[in-house]
């Protein structure tokens, strides 16, 4: 004789499915966050290659972070051609650069922005003339670029600094850091120095 499920039995099955889903969801979110962090590391490694190409073409010197208040004075404008983004208008070039992959998906999701969301650092100040790479004492300790800080005006800063730390958008409130020797690692927000004289910001012993 065929037996149909009772309402109580159906509710029990639905409750079990709901419990299993609630147990799996955090694991899925953690896996997604780790995937975003890994993708961001690879993006920064690629950016390091582009910085290296630029330096090779410019007597060992990198672009300035913000040599003027206009968009064509930002480092992104000068790096963009190495991503095959060559529009004359700086705003188009920067938009194309984000679409070409210079974007952290975790940061984009956190702030609902598809713009370039990495910031650069020059020892001393974001307005300093960039030093030759060969003149930096400890390039493996000096921050070159990282997850940019979100500006309250509604955009990402072009720089990171001891007064504007990288956004902690990755698991464990961490940020991905590209160094002047072009390697990348991950650091918790609390591990990033806020002292302007620290080797992380000066590259000096």
Provide structural commentary.
- Helix content is 38%, strand content 11%.
- With 205 residues, the chain is of the alpha+beta class.
- It has one domain.
- Strands 1-2-5-6 form a four-stranded antiparallel beta sheet. Strands 3-4 form a two-stranded antiparallel sheet.
- Strand 5 and strand 6 form a beta hairpin.
- It is elongated and about 80 Å long.
- The termini are far apart.
- 32% of the residues are buried.
Features:
205 residues, alpha+beta, 6 strands, 38% helix, elongated
Would you list the SSEs in sequence order as H and E? HHHHEEEEEEH
Low-confidence spans: none
Helix content: 25-40%
Average residue pLDDT: 84
> What class do helices, strands and sheet pairing give?
alpha+beta
Number of helices: 5
Please count the beta strands (DSSP E, at least 2 residues each): 6
SS strand fraction: 5-15%
Question: Distance between termini?
Answer: 85 Å
- Order of strands, main sheet, comes to 1-2-5-6
Shape: elongated
Provide the gyration radius in Å: 22 Å
Largest sheet: 4 strands, antiparallel
Total domain units: 1
